Each structure stands twice: as structure tokens, then as C-alpha cells.
Amino acid sequence: MTETTRIWPPVVVLFGGPSAEHDVSVVSGTAIAEALAAAGLDVRQVLIDLDGRWWWLPVEHRREDRPASAYDDPVAFGAEGPAAVGAAIDRLASASPAPVAFVALHGPFGEDGTLQALLEAAGVAYTGAGVLASALGMDKVVQKRIWRGLGLPVIDSLEVRAAAWAANRAGVLGQLEAFTSAASPPEPRLMVKPARLGSSIGMTLAHTAEERATGLDLAFRYDDLAIVERYLANARDLEVSVIGNAPPLGVYGPGEIVAGREFYDYDAKYTPGLSETSTRAELPEATRELMKKLARDAYRAIGAEGFARVDFLVRDDAIYVSEVNTIPGFTPISLFPTMPAEAGLDFTTVCLRIVELALERHAWRAHGPLRPADLPR
Predict the structure, then answer these.
(1) pLDDT tens across 14-44, in order?
(2) Which of 114, 176, 360, 367 has its CA at 20 to 30 Å from residue 343's CA atom?
């Protein structure tokens, strides 16, 4: 059956959200919605604003060249709302025919398992990782613990709690100084970032002890847990796309990013022309295959489903798994949706495949309500 003759359920694309990655999500979500609509699917777009309120945009809405900031006023688009989260979930759950929620939110609430749990509890089919995998994928500290325990190569790091920083700044800075001194050779530079956020928001490359303090202050604006990693000088930023619920998984790439700044910060990621990307990094074939294996291992280790992007740092012959993004960007400069082109999958086909995987997983999990006779009495 071809994609044009297949009968697809309605798709509700959720984007925005009450996180610092709100604007990136607007760009991702509207691009996904446009691709699915162009493929002939019945698509609705739902904007979740910074206060967590839900707005149904008009059926014919397209972002066109509007900046993400235009969505600060959904009323200007003729949006229907606002609805509180409970009422919005009820609306999705009671819709007929039953829709698939395409979760295109980045960061806390939309990517960390919170929204996934709401949709799961309501019986709504949704794209991407489930509750546990979403939570693990968002938490850079816990995912590193899991990967390290399985023997996957990761950069050395420390975790810092906001409470510990508030109580004893000098003590925490002393820990960081000891951490840098223990490297061989010693490396004073550290990457400081919120443990549960993406898009390089709140992230600092700290060159000195003073910058470490400033970096922690910034990270704690977004989270109460920070992760501090050794800086790997002259490392290459490589990414691998993974698509699938169960083996055999589709693994594509690695692609490469050449940052236009000292590190791949928010501006370097989202300012057109500032950084360069390639969907196929120049690598020995053995290195390419090893990275694909590590990407599969990292993906399966957290129980990911649907799709994700696995990021790596590579220097000389050393390969390190950096992090996993269970809802990677779908922006015009994002590598995740473009790397599968090597297998003939364009942007629209990737989006359709993700919807298909959501339906597949929902069918596996679907079951009716329990009855008294089902209980072990």
C-alpha cells in the first residue's frame, strides 16, 4: 500500500511548551505539521504557551516566514483557546476518529516524560519515546550513569545540586578545581550546563574558576541540577539519527557540525550561516560503523522508541557518547531529519514513519479496562 492510498488517522502536532526551548519547538512543530499536511494527512496544530495553556490553531494555519515570537499572541492567528492541560487532554482522548499526538516539544514538560505520562494515562497515541525513556533522555546525569555502567564511552563529569551550590560555593569550586587537576594532562576548561535542558541553553564553556561560578549561576536559572564535564579540546561534533521501536533499527549518519563559535552554543545552532553541517562526516568506515553500533546501544539502553538523535564527541581515535535527544530538532538546519536521506527518506517520509511507529507501539500497548474478574482475587 502506498503512502497516498493509506488511510491515516488525524494527527495533532503539539509544539511550543513552557520551557526555554519554546521557540525552537515552534519552528520544529510547524515544519512537521506542514510536511504532514502536504502529504495529505488531516493535521491540526496545537500551540502550548509559556503558561502551559493550549491553543488550537486554525486548520489552514501555516507559519510561513513568521518568527517564533509571533506565537506569543495566538489570538492574532484566530487560535481557539486557551484550554487548561486537563481539558486539552480530555479533548484529544474523546476525539473521533482517535488522533495521534505528534509531540514536537523540546525540553521540560514536553520531552521529559510529563506530557507523555498525561497522554499515556488518557490512552492517546503519541510519537517518540515513552515516559521512562523520555525522562532518562532528558536527564544528562542519569543517562551517563546508565551508559557508563554498560561500558559505553562517556566524558568524565560531575553533578552539582543547586542546594549544594547555595550552601557552599567555595566547597563546590574546590571540587571542580580538583576535578580539573586530576585530568592528564590537566585541563582547566569545563563545560557547565543544566542537566535537564537542551539546545545549549544555559550552557557555558568555563575557562577559569571565575567563569565556572558564573556558569553554575546561569545553569541554575534553568534547573536545580547541573552537570559539569571535562572539555575535550579539538573534538568533532557528530550526530547519528535512530528511527524505530525495536530491532532492526534504522541508523543514519553520522553527520557533522562545524560550530561557528568556540563551542556549539544556542547562537551557533540556530543562526543561519553561522555553523556548517554535513549529513555525512568524513570518517573511516570502521569508525562509522562503530558509531552506529554505539548509537543503537545508547538508544536501547534508555528504552527509547520511535526516534532519537545520539550525539558524539570524537577526537583522534577516541569516541564518546555525549547525549541522546528523544525529540531532536526539525528545524531547517537540523541534522536529525536530513541524515536519513542516505536511505532515501526525505523530511516528509521521516515524519510519516514516526507517526507509523506511534501507531505500531499504541497497538502493542492497547488493552481494555480491567474488570473485577481480571483481578487476582
Answers:
(1) 999 999 999 999 999 999 999 999 999 999 9
(2) 360
Facing residues of 225 across strands?
Answer: 161
Tell me which amino acid residue 289 is.
Answer: E
256: domain CATH number is 3.30.470.20
Please tell me whether residues 164 and 180 are part of one structural domain.
Answer: yes
pLDDT tens-digit map of 343-376:
999 999 999 999 999 999 999 986 778 899 989 9
The CA distance from 101 to 237, in Å, is 31
Does residue 105 contact residue 27 with C-beta atoms inside 8 Å?
no
Residue 201 sits in a domain whose CATH number is 3.30.1490.20
Same domain, 40 and 122: yes
**Domain limits at 174?**
156-230
- Give 268's pLDDT tier (boundaries 50, 70, 90): low
CB atoms within 10 A of CB 292: 18
**In terms of domains, do 189 and 285 share one?**
no
Report the alpha-carbon distance of residue 119 to residue 130 in Å, rounded: 10
In the chain, the number of structural domains is: 3
Give CA–CA dist 184/176, Å, rounded.
Answer: 15
Look at residue 366 and tell me if it is in a domain: no
Answer for the pair 71, 37: CB distance below 8 angstroms, yes or no.
no
What would the grid cell of residue 293 be?
Answer: 553500533
CB 256 within 8 A of CB 238: yes
Given a cut of 60, whether residue 269 has pLDDT beyond it is no
Mean pLDDT score, 275-297: 94
Please state, in angstroms and as integers, the Cα–Cα distance from residue 173 to each residue in 160, 164, 179, 226, following that order.
10, 11, 10, 13
CA distance 110 to 113: 7
